Amino acid sequence: MNYNLNKEEILLALREELSDINDIQNLQNLKSKYLGKNGLTKSLMKNLKNLDDQAKREYGKVINELKNEIEDIFENKLAELKKAELEEKEKENWVDVTIPGAIRKIGKESFITKTIREIEEIFIGMGFSIAEGPEIEDAWYNFDALNTPKWHPAREMQDTFYITTDQQKLLRTHTSPVQIRTMLKSTPPLAIISPGRVYRKDELDATHSPVFHQVEGLYVDKTVSVSHLKMYLETMAKKLFGNKVSILLRPSYFPFTEPSFEVDISCIFCGGKGCNICKNSGWIEILGAGLVHPNVLKSVNYDPEIWQGFAFGMGVERVALLKYNVPEMREFYKNDVRFIESW
User: Fold this and answer.
1) CA distance 192 to 182
2) What letter would DSSP give residue 39?
3) What's the predicted TM-score (pTM) here?
4) Alpha carbon distance 113, 73 (integer Å)
5) CB 152 within 8 A of CB 253
6) Which CATH superfamily is domain 111-341 in?
7) What is the pLDDT along the chain (343 residues), one digit of tens a residue?
């Protein structure tokens, strides 16, 4: 290079080269060409040794000005590239907030809960209230107060989940203990239903489970007969399964009711004509019921000469199987969202 340094030509050449630079790495490479230890400005400084003092001052001044301008140009270009890089990243991460959000599934009410709520609404509409009690129960509430003596098969260990070795604490086998607890702290007349989870030593299969749900009901007043029981149960059945449904009371036995009945509804699948679901009988069993046994009333200090009552109990899963035509009980406990969403 000659000693007649043309600063403007160098800057023009630099700007032309910069016009083709689109990334920071290439910019750094070009910067080394001009400002590196073997770059242009260093090379120009070597000419100082061949100049006199006056020329050195003038030449050095021009080189410093050139160096400063080159540094400014590179800083501006670097800022430009960083801004472009940031804008590109922002484009990649850009979110259009005006686009509707994804539909988030918030779950669906299970058939068990849905069936319990339907039954509750029906009986609340008929003047009943809802009562609840503990799932870990005393044997007295679960058996003794319900006229179930110690020799009764229902109390055997192969049927009941006992918690203590003396068989005085257990997982309740029905929600009837809630009826006892309610009568002990209430003055008749009263009308309650007690929905809840119960436990029995059953193997899980298409129609049985060691954990299931019941809704039991109790009505106590001074004049109560089987006709009252039938009226309430028939009203419930029609609201659950439709107005064409009728009920049938068949004599049965429960230690806490006398007389006792198995209650059937006319088959909702064949209209009572007979099919494989009702085993060609035209009837399907849904619950047990009866008039409250005098011994049960005595155990809660109700005078059976003054007060009478009726009680009933139904398996919620049984009702749900029929109402929603579910093939088997195990479907309720698989937690398969596809099953819930398909109904």
Assistant:
1) 9
2) S
3) 0.68
4) 73
5) no
6) Bira Bifunctional Protein; Domain 2 (3.30.930.10)
7) 344 567 788 888 888 888 888 888 888 888 888 888 777 877 777 777 777 777 778 777 887 887 888 888 888 888 888 888 888 888 888 877 888 877 777 777 888 999 999 999 999 999 999 999 999 999 999 999 999 888 878 777 668 899 999 989 999 999 999 999 999 999 999 999 999 999 998 887 777 788 999 999 999 999 999 999 999 999 999 999 999 999 999 999 999 999 999 999 998 888 878 888 888 889 999 999 999 999 999 999 999 999 999 999 999 999 998 888 887 888 887 777 777 777 6
Q: Left (φ > 0), alpha (ψ -120 to 50) or beta: where does 288 sit? A: beta
Q: Where are the alpha helices (DSSP H) in 36-166?
A: 40-45, 53-92, 111-124, 139-142
The amino acid at residue 39 is: G
Single-letter amino acid, residue 192: I
Domain boundaries, given as residue ranges, for the chain: 7-92, 111-341
User: Please, which residues bridge with residue 309 across strands?
Assistant: 220
- Lookup: tokens for 143: 């058996």
Cα distance between residue 167 and residue 156, in whole Å = 10
